[in-house]
Structures are given as structure tokens and as C-alpha cells.
Amino acid sequence: MFYFWVVLLALLLFLPVSNLVWVGSVRRLQRKLHRQLNTDELQGQKRRARFISLLLVLPFSWLFNLYLVGGGRG
Length: 74
Description:
By secondary structure, the protein is an all-alpha fold.
């Protein structure tokens, strides 16, 4: 059951975290380049944001669920 809850929480958090990372990345790159990004650049930033989100969400979900089942209470 533990792994089920880890995966479920990770899936639920993936899209919002991915969108937050993507928006921040796009805005930072637009400021750096002083122009709007084209569709290829936006898609590249989307892929990058998804990868970063995966690296953030999985450990968070694992640690959060570990804490809930008693690993962090003692």
C-alpha cells in the first residue's frame, strides 16, 4: 500500500509542479533573451520542466508518505 500512495501523490502533484516550473523557466528565459519564445523553445522548456518536476515530486512523495506511516515520528 505504501508504494500505491507514493505513486498516487506523485501523480497528483506532477501537473501543478510541472506548470509552476515551466512558467518560471519561460519567464526567466524571456527576460534573458529580451523576446518572446517560439514554439520549439516553449516545447523544449516544457520537456525540461517535466523532467525537473519528476525529480522534485517523487522524493517529496516518498518522504511525505514515509512520515505519515511513522518514519518521521520517532
